[in-house]
Amino acid sequence: MKDIILDAPKRAISFTISRDFKTLEKILINNLKKYEGYIKVASLIEDPKTRGVVIEGFITGEKRVIDSFCKNKDDQNTFLTEVKSENGLGDYEKSFDQFLTKTDVKTKVLYDKSNPKAYNIDKFLEFMSNDKSVFMFFFVGLKPKEYNNNENISIENALINVFQVEILKKTRIQYHLSGRNSRGGTLLNGEVIKTLLLVPKNNINEIESRDFLIKLMEL
Questions:
Q1: Who contacts 191 (Cβ-Cβ below 8 Å, separation ≥6)?
Q2: 155: left (phi over 0), alpha (psi -120 to 50) or beta
Q3: Residue 137 CB: number of other CB atoms within 10 A?
Q4: Is the predicted pLDDT of residue 9 greater than 70, yes or no?
Q5: HSE-up of 26 (CA within 13 Å, CB side)?
Q6: With helix as H, strand as E and coil as C, how does the chain read?
Q7: CA dist list (Å): 154 to 104, 169, 216
């Protein structure tokens, strides 16, 4: 199992230069464009948790989230109750012949300086032990040109691998994000996300990525 986990960066490199990467990217971008109007409305939601759940649902095409939001957009508590689910790894799973991908949608309001949660380390390592596994982030950047006016919001996007060089260097381990008998969780760097939204790139250093995985396994 350890060898399979340590092969994850090599799988990631193979995936990011494959046609399957383009296919996954196209699915997510098509959903973004299809529901762009709703996403712009949702971007004005003040509560970041609700805003994230709504936008993730539209990006991944999750019908129950879309239907619930359209029905309860003025009642956020009811919406969150209806769509409450287990906190798994990633928001969207797509299987290919050679790869099994999980993608975590991360919404970033570009004037916000927050550093979003990335993943639970135990769940991440468990997924990496699958010999086809590839874990991606789909970053959605929201940039209001005028506050309280969803018609003036621009939306950026970038499909980025978890081992991308800048992402990896700035990933922080947070032991308190999980309970006892857990390796903890990780945080992304908000400024790195902003940079990658402007210039998406999936450069991966295999040696540094393997070293990072070893560090996680030894926690």
A1: 113, 170
A2: beta
A3: 23
A4: yes
A5: 5
A6: CHHHHHCHHHHHHHHHCCHHHHHHHHHHHHHHHHCHHHHHHHCCCCCHHHHHHHHHHHHHCCHHHHHHHHHHCCCHHHHHHHHCCCCCCCCEEEECCCCEEEEEEEEEECCCCCCCEEEEHHHHHHHHCCCCEEEEEEEEEEEECCCCCHHHEEEEEEEEECCEHHHHHHCEEEHHHCCCCCCCEEECCHHHHHHHHHCCCCCECHHHHHHHHHHHHCC
A7: 21, 28, 37
Count of Cβ atoms closer than 10 Å to residue 215 Cβ: 10
Beta bridge partners of residue 136, listed in sequence order: 103, 161
Q: For residue 159, what pLDDT is reported?
A: 98
- Which of 94, 90, 86 is closest to 117 using CA atoms? 90
What is the phi/psi pair of residue 159, to 5°? -100, 110
Would you state the pLDDT for residue 77?
Answer: 76
Q: Is 19 left (phi over 0), alpha (psi -120 to 50) or beta?
A: alpha
Query: pLDDT at residue 146 above 60?
Result: no
Q: Which residues contact 22 (CB under 8 A, 6 or more apart)?
A: none
Greater pLDDT, 120 or 152: 120
